[in-house]
Amino acid sequence: MPTTNDLYNGMVIEFKNDLYQVLEFQHVKPGKGQAFVRTKLKNLTTGAVIEHTFPAGVEVTPARVERRKAQYSYKDDMGYHFFDTETFEEYIIPEDQISGKEFLKEDMEVEVLYHDEKGAPIGVEVPPFVILEVTYTEPGLKGDTATNATKPAKLETGIEIQVPLFVEMGDKVKVDTRTKRYVERIREKKK
Q1: I need a surface site. Which of 19, 66, 104, 190 has the fewest CB within 10 A?
Q2: Domain ranges of the chain
Q3: Which class is 129-186 in CATH?
Q4: Domain 65-125's class?
Q5: β-strand 172-176 against 49-55: which pairing, if any?
Q6: Could you say which of 3.40.50.410, 3.30.1360.180, 3.40.50.300, 2.30.30.30 is the CATH number of the domain covering 4-62?
């Protein structure tokens, strides 16, 4: 049986009669006392994020979760619609079960978490990095590019992030979906 020493980001465990995904964990060995593991867990049923501290070496029960590739189609009153790229099965998943929904765009490939015992999808994960187009940002001033100054930019999915001053409308940028931060500007290859 795995213990808290075997935790990793993205692992799904059974905890408090529900399924939780490990978002972050940190092993702590204080000078005095017993070591412990500080975690940030996401409830896959409600979407709530909690912090919990486990004593080091305590057994955890991993959940049997399958990750299936799917493609995002659209959103309506029922929820977000995805279809399995292998079986062409359609999933309708509520908003609170999707991490990174603000980065979803049509035809994006994602991973659907599927729990065997529940017989239904329990969550969706977007890729760790996405490339999106800047739809609006103020123009940057010449000469300010030597500093680490940033400005707000609205992306094609509607999310607003901070970008360097040299980024302009129409540019494509790579964004880390876990931190919601700008990574780099993507240059189009000339034909």
Answers
A1: 190
A2: 4-62, 65-125, 129-186
A3: mainly beta
A4: mainly beta
A5: unpaired
A6: 2.30.30.30
Task: Return the residue matching tokens 């075997």.
Answer: 6
The whole-angstrom separation of Cα 15 and Cα 144 is: 50
**At 18, which amino acid appears?**
D
pTM above 0.90, yes or no: no
pLDDT digits (tens, 9 = 90+) for 24-43: 999 999 888 889 999 999 88
> From CA 95, how far away is CA 11, in angstroms rounded?
21
Tens digit of each residue's pLDDT (9 = 90 or more) over 133-179 = 999 998 876 655 556 788 999 999 999 999 988 889 999 999 998 88
Residue 85 dihedral angles phi and psi, to the nearest 5°: -75, -15
Angle at the Cα of 99 (from 174 to 101), degrees rounded to 5? 65
Amino acid at site 153 = A
Q: Which two tokens stand for residue 160?
A: 């607003």
